[in-house]
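cache lookup: miss for this entity combination. No prior model stored, computing from scratch. Input as submitted by user K.M.:
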Amino acid sequence: MAIALQYTNVTVADVDESIVFYRDALGLEVQNDVASGNFRWVTLGTSAQPGLGIVLSEPHAGRSQADGDAMQELLVKGVLPMLVFNTDDLDATFETVRASGAEVLQEPIDMGWGQRDCAFRDPSGNMVRIAQAPAP
Amino acid sequence: MTPQELENLAHLRRARDLIDREYARPLDVPTMAARALMSPAHFSRQFRAAYGETPYNHLMTRRIERAMALLRAGTTVTDACMAVGCTSLGSFSSRFAEIVGMTASEYRRREHHAVEAMPACVAKTQTRPSRHGSSRNEEAREAAPA
């Protein structure tokens, strides 16, 4: 039995603003854009990991007002779970994302066990970490 | 929340990020408040309402969390104190004992198998000492004298 992650959801304050970050800065491709009522669910992915969709939606999308309000507050406070990406060129990725104007949380540094990583806030306040495994 | 309240919350987040990033510098509350575009008194109240502790306590908790990582790696207590931005060994030591529940030298001597297996960004949240009696920092609590 093989099992793999197919979709992961990221809550964002504004879908269009976030597409600019995830597509133009991180280099993901928009694969799907579905509207329902006043909300949209935008799926992005990468050819480096076919079959995995990262779905952006807003806090109140598909939720009650109270639940959406709670999600929105956690999002803006910056305490929702982080996303961790992997790249084969951390320094180039860092420069591209920084040049897009994203808030830098941490420049690339070597971690204790050989991996390097850096961290940003996406435009909504989600922590996005980017790692590079040590060369084999 | 109103758009203004959300904007203020985002400013508080940026100030909190500043603390987490620049903890080793001599940060004071007016500097943090400036990042949040608020007066120091208003900033302290708002920060505490949002994150459950004052900005200064958040800074000290961050410093102690980083000091714990250095102590686990074998750094001396004095070097760890200076490396995280504390200038007084005495106040560092008492703050460490208050938050972690044991002295810095006791903590340094202990074994830390579970934390060594964690990525640093996970260890940061999992080992972050807490004043709120949460489930964090079980490693220290288990070892605290009864």
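stored under new cache key. The helical segments of chain A are 15-25, 65-77, 90-99.
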